[in-house]
Amino acid sequence: MENRTVLTPALRPLHDTDVTTWELPNGALARFGRGLRLDIEFSHDAAYLTVATKIGFWIYDLETLKPRALWGNERGMMNVATFSHDSQWIATGDQDGILKVWDTQNGQVVTRIDWGSTRWRNSILHVNFSHNDKYLAASGFGHSAVYDWRGNPNEPVYSNTIEKPKLEDYSKESAAYDRHFPIAFSPNGNLFASVSAPDTVLITNVDSGEDIACLSGNTAPLHSLKFSPCGQFFTGACRGSTVQVWNIHKEALEMQPTTFDGKRVRIAYTSDGSLRVADIYTNRVDIVDLHQQNEIFTFDTLGNTADNARFSNNGKQFAIDCWNNKIQIWKEDTPNTRSFFSGYGSIPYSVAFLQDSSILIGGNWGSTGKLFWDVKKRKVLPTLQNMTKRASFRRMMSLSPDDQHLAVDTSHNDIQVWHVESEELIAELTEHENRIYSLTFSPNGQYLVSGGWTDEVFVWDTVKWEIKHALKAHTGYVQALAFHPDGKLLVSSSRDGTAILWNVVTGEQVSALPLPDTFDDAELYKGEPEEIERVMNGGNLEWKQYQHMESITFSPGGELIAGGLGTWLADGLTSEIRIWDTETLKTRMIILPPQGCIRPWALAFSPCGNYLASGAWWHPGLNRTPIRLWDIKTGENIHTFWGHSSDVQDLAFSPDRKLLASAGFDGTILLWDVKTYIN
């Protein structure tokens, strides 16, 4: 494979397989998970495969099926990574609307084109090199453009913008997700196809700017486009897994539309002009020759099929992403498919350390379930593997104080309680009628409390696994629960904007946690002077009705309560971390994070109780989201880690005070060295 040597200088050696240490942010010791996967693409010589994720894009060697590089991780959020035909370049499009071209010999960016917006509808969904690699095209929601990227990349040589596109016009109904607004170049490189209306493809000569054909009447919306090798025919895959073949010059259908039975299809032409279709089901893929009307190969997938699937350039290989985190590859004239592990890519919504600090549990969403990581060896332990065979899991989990029981919520609105050592399911709690939002064991292990939709807050007896009390006072989702170290006092916070203290022994309400609008005493506020002045002058009152706490926690000694306040609206304007005195319920301190540090909804006290870690959500203009360490006595931000490319979901200190674990919406868990800051 001649082009393989082009990438060699920039790739890691084959023996360097510990991806947990690759391209780490400053202060991080390890990364668990390889990011939420968004796309897969073959190089044109089928020697490599790119996997675009929320932490950057990976390059895999297809001969060995090993990862060779992680690039673009300074920001991440990669929707797509596509090789040029000669494999000297890789073009990427991200969710910030940035188009980049990378030199595969050194891994450096040589061209950067900014679409000028960070709105999700302007994120780049597709990128494509022309056959001679002269032109580079990109498309997003309602817009596509072609650039002479090595000549004048500042101005497109061609662009196509749809006025006020409506999302519902370009979405599949009752079908798996496919990306909107596909694009394609012809084999000779000067014809460009783009979507100009839900049922219309416009084909343009980019050298002259002349429109060559307008192919209307497709079964809208279109989700895949391909030119035939001869350039005479054009194929589109549409809603309902329908494939339509057009004669470009006649602007007419060459054959009757063919509708397949699977959830979605992918298309490719072989070098001799045969049209191949991958008909993708939930657990199976059929590779079909459409012209010959015969089935080439059928294989069962290793798990439920994900949205990411792609043919190689010549149609002789096919790769599909499975929800069990493996990528499966079919190759023509081989009796079996191959597969490789592409890393845990589901979202970890929660994290927890075992008491000896040696093992970290990641509460991943979906079929991945809960992962037990050996912190020192940076490997997943085969613990509770039977768990993933029973159900799909949502966000929440709680570990009992003796490390023996793990409670998790399922997609069926149930709670499963597993005995960790024996790996047996010991209880299924089915009384919740709606989704569960919070779970916590009491420090003495006597109770498990679960909070859900509206007023569903249940206190469970952990001996009988029966409801001891139903706590009713909230009128919104119960977002967070926390126990006092004595195991008797519980605080719950809700989307209705309230926080309530309970006696779980009696089931009685003790008091509502006071949430006054503003304070006259400026000494209570900690933060930048202009922020303090803005809030004291009522700067947050406009959004008061939307403000709530999605995180709440007691200090290790129980003398303090900390809560993270914010709203889904007014980014960066209403974020506060409030500290209360547990005995008097008076506000001790209000920490005002800097503007842009929004929704501090992940909180964790250090084991010594002197410090508080807070994790924010991503805000436009940031490459990474901040994790801040606060001195509880002074309110000073003593250090900030910049790690995840998207929202921080949860935080946990190791009991030995050496590590901080952060769970990110980017599909990874980061381990941070905090010894220097909290000793």
Uncertain regions spanning at least 5 consecutive residues: 1-5
What is Rg? Answer: 27 Å
Mean pLDDT: 92
- Largest β sheet strand count, sense and barrel closure: 5 strands, antiparallel
What amount of the residues lies in strands? over 45%
Structural class call reads mainly beta
What proportion of the residues is helical, as a percent range?
under 10%
Number of helices: 3
State the distance separating the first and last CA atoms. 54 Å
The gross shape turns out to be globular
Number of distinct beta strands: 58
Task: Please summarize what this structure is.
This protein has 679 residues and is mainly beta.
Tell me what you see in this structure.
The chain is 2% helix and 48% strand. The protein contains three helices and 58 strands.
